[in-house]
Amino acid sequence: MAEYKIGSDQIGANNDKHAKALYADYAALGEHLARRNIDIEKLVEKVSAYGVAVPSWGVGTGGTRFARFPGAGEPRDIFDKLDDCGVIHQLTGATPNVSLHIPWDKADPKALLEKADTLGLGFDAMNSNTFSDAEGQKHSYKFGSLSHASAATRAQAVEHNIECIEIGKAIGSKALTVWIGDGSNFPGQTNFTTQFERYLDAMKDVVKALPADWRIFTEHKMYEPAFYSTVVQDWGTNYMIAQELGPQAYCLVDLGHHAPNVNIEMIVARLIQFKKLGGFHFNDSKYGDDDLDTGSIDPFRLFLVFNELVDAEQRGAEGFDPAHMLDQSHNVTDPIESLMQSAMEVQRAYAQALLVDRGALKSFQEDNDALMAAQTLKKAFRTDVEPILAMARQRKGAAIDPIAAYRAAGYRAKVAAERPAVTGGSGGIV
Ligand code: LRH
Ligand code: MN
Ligand code: MN
């Protein structure tokens, strides 16, 4: 039994305030969906079983390239971070796993496991960091890591990734996500081909260290921190990498890592079709890698991504098992609130995508009825599925309204009293 940070009586008291309205809304939606031949109970089951992992680095206040404004009760270490992740899961019932970033979260694996156990949490993919220099590290990553011109620097980056696998093995993780900042800032600074060859060779060494039941996810990103060229810049390159690295290698899609207007849902469909979709970093963006709360800018795009995922799930696409993780940075909100909101947005998109009448959609597509095909998706997207999500939470003992319950519990003030205040500074995380 998990030792949660917020009393279940507090959640219960908050739920009591919302229960009557929830039952009424649930009954009304159930009736409406029945007319569409949809069983609301089946949807609650599906949504209940759904989970998205929280990034350990997301529970601290992030920064821009210009400044960081820490909030009250900033987690001091990975154990505080896990406490915060535990609260997110306790209130939403939607985030059973945490994704760690090494060396930021480096700690005794036994202690990590014990702490996660007390909070009822598990661990999703490990993330390596060769985009910044760790304290005491011999070779700098200023000019790259896995693709660096110097063999010693590349070997150090390979070693770091192997260390992440070792830690992951000890805590029950089954995947490693590799994102590198390698690239160049000026035309001529690097040779595209040589740099990519070096990267592939180094990654092959990492893959050799992968246990048989692990997967490795490579994450592409168009630019930043490199501003002229990036080694793993788009899904095409990413797909080539996954092909080169073999059957354990898959592509990770971070929603914020594409050129503006790129059709991300179509990229997702392609990667599913060719059995190389490894997972997601969900977030939202307006301009670049903004790391805004998931679904805060373009919820329709999130729905369209889930439309592809549900399509694949329902037709039993071979080898389809993507990891679902959030990757956000919070500058002006309480990270716990933002992550809870995002987890619920992801669930919402999933529930909406489950509502798509796929039989009708197929006929409209075959009849070239563009208007009705589009309306079929819109009809699902426009349905307010909140009572389904709230009912799934309530039945798990989570909160009907997680943000209200969190605020009422005063968790932030409580940890602010225990955790020393952190002063701001210049920009940080990418
Ligand atoms: C890079 C990225 C990647 C990192 C995380 C901190 O922009 O999305 O996933 O590991 O941010
Ligand atoms: Mn990411
Ligand atoms: Mn990013």
From TrEMBL:
Keyword Metal-binding in record: yes
Domain named Xylose isomerase-like TIM barrel: residues: 100-291
Pfam families according to UniProt: AP_endonuc_2
Molecular functions (GO terms): isomerase activity; metal ion binding
Regions annotated as coiled coil: none
Name recorded for this polypeptide: L-rhamnose catabolism isomerase
UniProt KW keywords: Isomerase, Manganese, Metal-binding
